[in-house]
Write a structure and sequence with these properties.
alpha/beta; seven-stranded mixed beta sheet; 31% helix
């Protein structure tokens, strides 16, 4: 088997390559409508070529590494080829290792646990970050937060000031490649140069960026190189449970891995363990070979189509969406709503509708228009609270309510986010539905559950969904 499976030509077959694109969904009134997925920032659907690659691999599925049987040797060769494909996609080069795990969150936790941080070290992250790029660092070092400009973008002036304030102590600058709230994409290579000049390594959380833009980590000799990068396959059209951490070999050579056990050692006695070299040292247990094959297959497809081609389509779609959303009365954007400013952002658009709770809007879109969106704070609470201009006293009151089991008044917004397969008709459907809500013509009756904050349709139970057969029909 080779992972260079047939790739469908673009552009005519873009949408046909998406699994479940035409899956019908029941609406609140009994009608059936095609499901419109505008929640790609959370997770993306699978590609047909990914499913084909997994099906092609399954007859060879066996234990990876150290097996003498033909299937095991075949599975190992495929797994190793996939590792090479992933590394090449990110421009890792031979000077970096590719470590597989569950997702980007696990990868960031691993890196925070394994990166050498002497006493007194400072890690700089940003107010834009997903919680996964904040919380893992807090137990390892003093953490500083790079501030924002008034429009919600990252303040490079504040980064420069904090690097100077903590001169000699900053060991890591860790930033998102693109925000999952506003779609803003910081200039990661410029930030890398600033970090390196201050003696720090740069980490890029590319979970949002990788499916939409070409990324090159560049050679370590380049002042603008990326030291460490993490990504998740489930956001890259390969939902089989794999993430990746790419970075220099040296930090992983010393010390124990964060997870120990099978697959990490050369030798174990009752007194000691002799560890394997990275990346195997950092991949405890039986690896997710199917997930890794799926990840590589998705990368092959995206590469064959061309990330620049996909990015241009998404930029045009984002421009169109921002123009059309302006037609909805009472709609407020978070981040930039400028349709002429799409060069430094992805197709991630967050907004609220005057007079309506964000959960109510999302519920109506799902039940009455068959449109999947997301609402809430998107695992980026500090960023959303800043964009929403929540006062400190209100934040403390909300904290008390949450601690006591009431989540009904948590602030947030509605988010739509595009994949390469979305089209203008998807935007038109969302705008039409939002205009219906804004005009007070939503047809269903909804109630909010205090404990969760979720809005549910009256007369519908939370578990009132079609049954799934798990392969039994």
């Amino acid at each position: 088997m080779s992972l260079s499976s047939e790739i469908v030509e673009l552009p005519g077959a873009w949408r046909d390559e998406v699994v479940g694109l035409h899956q019908p969904a029941p609406l609140f009134d009994g009608r059936i409508a095609p499901y419109i997925n505008l929640d790609n920032a959370a997770t993306t659907p699978a590609l047909q070529s990914v499913v084909r690659a997994v099906e092609e691999f399954l007859p060879w599925y066996a234990s990876v590494h150290r097996g003498s049987g033909f299937k095991s040797r075949m599975a190992t060769a495929i797994y190793d080829e996939a590792r090479q494909i992933v590394g090449e996609f990110f421009g890792a080069g031979p000077e970096r290792v590719v470590v597989f795990g569950k997702n980007a969150t696990e990868a960031l936790n691993k890196l925070a646990a394994r990166f050498p941080l002497p006493a007194g070290s400072v890690v700089l992250t940003t107010m834009m970050e997903h919680h996964s790029n904040m919380l893992p660092w807090r137990s390892r070092a003093e953490v500083g937060y790079i501030d924002l400009e008034p429009d919600g973008t990252l303040s490079l002036a504040d980064l420069e000031a904090k690097l100077a304030r903590h001169a000699g102590r900053v060991k890591v600058v860790t930033v998102t490649g693109a925000s999952n709230v506003t779609g803003f994409a910081p200039p990661i290579h410029k930030i890398a140069a600033m970090a390196h000049a201050a003696g720090a390594a740069i980490v890029v959380d590319a979970a949002q960026l990788a499916p939409h833009r070409a990324i090159s980590m560049r050679p370590l000799s380049d002042p603008e190189h990326i030291d460490f990068l993490v990504a998740s396959a489930h956001k890259m059209y390969a939902p089989y449970g794999t993430g990746v951490l790419v970075g220099p070999r040296e930090p992983f050579l010393e010390g124990e891995p964060d997870l120990v056990g099978g697959g990490t050692v050369k030798l174990v006695t009752l007194e000691e363990a002799v560890w394997l070299d990275p990346p195997e040292k950092e991949e405890a247990g039986s690896p997710n070979a199917i997930g890794v094959v799926a990840f590589a297959a998705a990368i092959k497809a995206l590469s064959a189509w061309g990330l620049d081609t996909l990015a241009e389509h998404e930029r045009e779609l984002t421009t169109y969406a921002l123009r059309r959303l302006r037609e909805v009365p009472g709609l407020r954007f978070f981040g930039s709503g400028d349709p002429d400013r799409t060069s430094d952002r992805l197709g991630v658009i967050s907004f609220n509708l005057a007079g309506y709770h964000h959960g109510h809007v999302a519920a109506v879109l799902g039940h009455e228009a068959g449109i999947g969106v997301r609402n809430g704070c998107f695992c980026a609470h500090p960023y959303l609270l800043r964009l929403l201009e929540v006062r400190a006293e209100d934040a403390e009151r909300l904290r008390s309510e949450i601690v006591h089991g009431v989540r009904a008044r948590i602030p947030g917004s509605v988010r739509i986010s595009f994949g390469f397969y979305n089209i203008k008709a998807d935007v038109d459907a969302a705008v039409d539905a939002l205009q219906t809500i804004a005009s007070g013509q939503a047809r269903g009756t909804y109630r909010q559950i205090e404990e969760t904050g979720e809005f549910v349709l009256e007369g519908k139970a939370l578990d009132d969904l079609p049954r799934f057969g798990f392969g039994q029909g």
